[in-house]
Amino acid sequence: MRRQATDHLFSSAKASAMPAFKKIREKMAASTRNLVAFGKDRRGIAALEFALIAPVMIMLLLGSIEITNGFDVNKKLARAGAMVGDLVTQQQSITKEKIADIMEIGTSILLPYRRDLPTITIASITVDANGNATVAWSQRKQGQAISTPYTKGSAITIDPNLKIPTSNFVRVETSIAYIPLIAWTMKDTVKTSIGTSGPGIAMGKMIYGRIRQGDAVACTNC
């Protein structure tokens, strides 16, 4: 009798537990089916790939734009110096007003870059019979201000190869601060011609021009 009672209790417990185990198996099977379906589902994979790749592509795009703009400004800076020197060396005599107009033309070459204005310095240099170089006249445009950077008759340092006795030539110096829209990892701070500063690259060029007409370019009111 006791054994029959024990078997009866075991059968009753087993019967009552079966539905619970069945539900657990059904839930596990459903979860497995969902995982398999999720693994096979390709919807939205393009959006996921774009989300992963887009930041890298955007960084590459912006970087290439800044590099291209930097090379363009550097090339225009050299072109502006060459153009200013060419216009000045074609003259036999010149005035401060005409020099200012020529430097304004040189400034316009850097457009549409507007985060700084170029500083343009023009110096007429005379080399005497002993090879000593001195300044005949000079003018500088920094921002919108015009000044005289070198004292007339003062000594000036030039390339030794240009120290040809009794010669005259014109030197044009151009400089500008290239400040990118995005500083990236730039740590050097550059100062603009208008007094502001920011992370960027200081660019500069120096052009020497041979006198085209006569012996020298005389400035009548410098």
TrEMBL record:
Residues 44-80 form the TadE-like domain. InterPro entries: TadE-like_dom. The chain crosses the membrane at residues 45-65. The keyword Transmembrane helix applies. Keywords: Membrane, Transmembrane, Transmembrane helix. It holds the Pfam family TadE. This is TadE-like domain-containing protein.
